[in-house]
Write a structure and sequence with these properties.
It holds the Pfam family UBD. InterPro entries: DC-UbP/UBTD2_N, DC-UbP/UBTD2_N_sf, UBTD1/2. It is a single chain. By secondary structure, this protein is mostly helical. It contains three helices and two strands, in the order H-H-H-E-E. A hairpin with a 7-residue loop joins strand 1 and strand 2 (about 90). Helix 2 runs antiparallel to helix 3 (about 65-75). The relative contact order is 0.17.
Length: about 100
């Protein structure tokens, strides 16, 4: 008779729990509409810096979501999180 055993599979170690970023401050006072325009400009131009559009879309959805949903979005999209506040992220190709 043989003996069998099992153990829990080790995770890949790439999953990092995300957190809210520190509050951002602009050097001069701006209106809410100016802030929204700046956000839209960022998300519109971000894919031009490299990476897949799907990853950028996932990051935008995560940035606008509550933390638990944001974590699920980042995990399911395969985003590799370098900084827990999402300031440095990349896809599996390193972009």
């Amino acid at each position: 008779m043989g003996c069998a055993g099992s153990s829990q599979a080790k995770s890949d170690g790439n999953v990092k729990k995300i957190r809210k970023p520190k509050p951002w401050k602009h050097p001069q006072p701006i209106t809410k509409s100016q802030l929204m325009q700046m956000r839209d400009e960022f998300w519109d131009t971000a894919p031009h810096y490299g990476g897949r559009k799907e990853i950028w879309d996932a990051l935008r959805a995560a940035a606008d979501a509550e933390l638990s949903l944001a974590q699920a979005i980042v995990d399911s999209a395969g985003v590799i999180v370098q900084n827990a506040d999402l300031t440095i992220c990349y896809d599996e190709r390193g972009i």
